[in-house]
Amino acid sequence: MKKNIIVLVLNTAFEHWKQGTYVAIEKMKSGQKSKILPLDTYMIDMTVFSEQFSNKNITKENVIETIENVREITDMVADYYLKKNKKSQSATNQT
Fold first, then answer.
1. Cα dist. 63→3, 52, 69 in Å?
2. Which end of the chain has less Cβ packing within 10 Å, N or C?
3. Alpha-carbon gap, residue 73 to 76, rounded angstroms
4. CA 65, CA 63: separation in Å to the nearest integer?
5. What's the rounded Cα separation, in Å, for the pair 39 and 47?
6. Coil, helix or strand for 63?
7. Burial (CB count within 10 angstroms: exposed 0-12, middle 13-18, buried 19+), residue 12
């Protein structure tokens, strides 16, 4: 990736992380369950997103499939952190 694209991807990831964290905190304050994911989850999401769309022309035939591919990778990263946090919490509760 070119340097200006990398800067744009990282800035966008950071802004999405801030917004997602704010929304999650507000939900928790109102008693709803929510999750806060690490910044690198958003960085991976935006990197994969930009790679997927920079490697092909966006058409109505491929846009949904491409978004689903990006979401699948992002969900895998989020699941990894959620499982890791559960293991960490369970180890802390045992001590």
1. 25, 10, 10
2. C
3. 5
4. 6
5. 12
6. helix
7. middle
Q: Quick one: pLDDT band at residue 14, thresholds 50, 70, 90?
A: very high
Sequence letter at residue 93: N
* Between 88 and 73, the higher pLDDT residue: 73
Tell me which residue has tokens 């990197």: 47
CA angle 82, 89, 81 (to 5 degrees): 20
Q: Which long-range contacts (CB under 8 A, 24 or more apart) does 15-22 make?
A: 16/42, 16/45, 16/46, 17/41, 17/42
